[in-house]
Amino acid sequence: MKGLVYRGAKKVAVEEVPDAKIEGPLDAVIRLTTTNICGSDLHMYEGRTAVEQGTVLGHENMGVVEEVGPGVTQVKPGDRVSVPFNIACGTCRNCQSGWWSFCTRTNPTEGMDGAAYGYANMGPYAGGQAEYLRVPFADVNLLHLPAGREFENDFTMLSDIFPTGWHGVELSGFQPGDRVAVFGGGPVGLMAAHSALIRGASEVFVVDQVTDRLKLAEKIGATLIDFSAGDPDEQIFERTGGKGCDRGVEAVGFQAHDAGGDEHPELTLDHLVNIVRSTGGIGVVGVYVPEDPGLDRPEKADRVGWQYGTFFSKGQSMGTGQAPVKRYNRQLRDLIIAGKATPSFIVSHEIGLDEAPDAYDKFDKRVDGYTKVLLKPNA
């Protein structure tokens, strides 16, 4: 089968890779109908993670069940399913507590709880930017979708970014009527803004400098903050009469850049500590890593010098970490079906798998119009 393979910094290629197959009684094999390029894939693409060359990328996956192992009872061939990026056993302490994103059994990498498809340090699992995908613990992990092709471009957001955006809002301690600032207008940040508005935010600021992203934020009713036009904190304080926000969502991560293009991993955290009111909350779903091969000393990535003293003095709270997709995906699916959520508003391109290397290059360079790329491997 064909798959998109990582071949070094800013090098990916579509190659023949080993066929996805049943390896255990609880496995399923999925024929991919849609698989997305995620903003967090760019950390690997740019050589800023420990991902191994030869890895098939792709953790935002959906499709149709092709085959199941003898122990699978809840899904069958022909079922249309969403595949959460988390790979969970369903029975460990964390899974039983609803933290499927930190399963203690599925990732053999030392010091890492939680597994995912085609991602650095997240276990030995091939990704889904390919024609087929093996899904371990299929009964635990797969979400049933209505048959057919309806809502395809909405449902494909259920594997990661829609639940992740929702999780960022949840981690912030959000309450209806809160004013929210989302730093980062990429796909996850836009999903966080969409989620906050669905949940009853009084106002949502989206902070970015990319015109295409800001236009999409405006489309869903968010208030735009272009940080290339001036200090974002000052802009928010001016618009709120000096009050700032009740909640904040960090959707950028360790490769945050200022308006001049210089990288500062603490940048968005400092902004959020500044503009979120005392006793307010911050949800961090942007990716931070313990090691960054792009630095002179990779381990330096594990220590980010942000304004913890101010954070403490203001009595703020913070939640972090990867989203437990299964906690939210069933409800978000039903919001889509009911017409209450339309996460497909961010989609800019639908292309074949063979076009993926070029799309990675353009998405990484923030070429105008490249906001969310969907791959159709079996179209």
Can you give a write-up of this model?
- It holds the Pfam family ADH_N.
- Residues 25-140 form the Alcohol dehydrogenase-like N-terminal domain.
- By secondary structure, the chain is an alpha/beta fold.
- It folds into two domains: 2-160 and 324-375, Medium-chain alcohol dehydrogenases, catalytic domain (Quinone Oxidoreductase, Chain A, domain 1), CATH 3.90.180; 165-320, NAD(P)-binding Rossmann-like Domain (Rossmann fold, 3-Layer(aba) Sandwich), CATH 3.40.50.
- The chain is built from twelve helices and 15 strands.
- It has helices at 41-45, 93-96, 138-141, 152-155, 161-171, 187-198, 211-219, 232-239, 267-275, 308-313, 329-337, 356-364, and strands spanning 2-6, 12-16, 28-37, 60-68, 80-83, 132-135, 143-144, 179-183, 203-208, 223-226, 245-250, 276-284, 317-320, 349-351, 373-375.
- The strands form three sheets. Strands 3, 4, 5, 6, 7, 14 and 15 form a seven-stranded mixed beta sheet that branches. A six-stranded parallel beta sheet has the order 10-9-8-11-12-13, sandwiched between helices.
- Strand 8 (179-183), helix 6 (187-198) and strand 9 form a beta-alpha-beta unit.
- Helix 5 (161-171) packs across helix 6 and helix 8 runs parallel beside helix 9 (267-275).
- The protein is globular.
- It starts with a strand and ends with a strand.
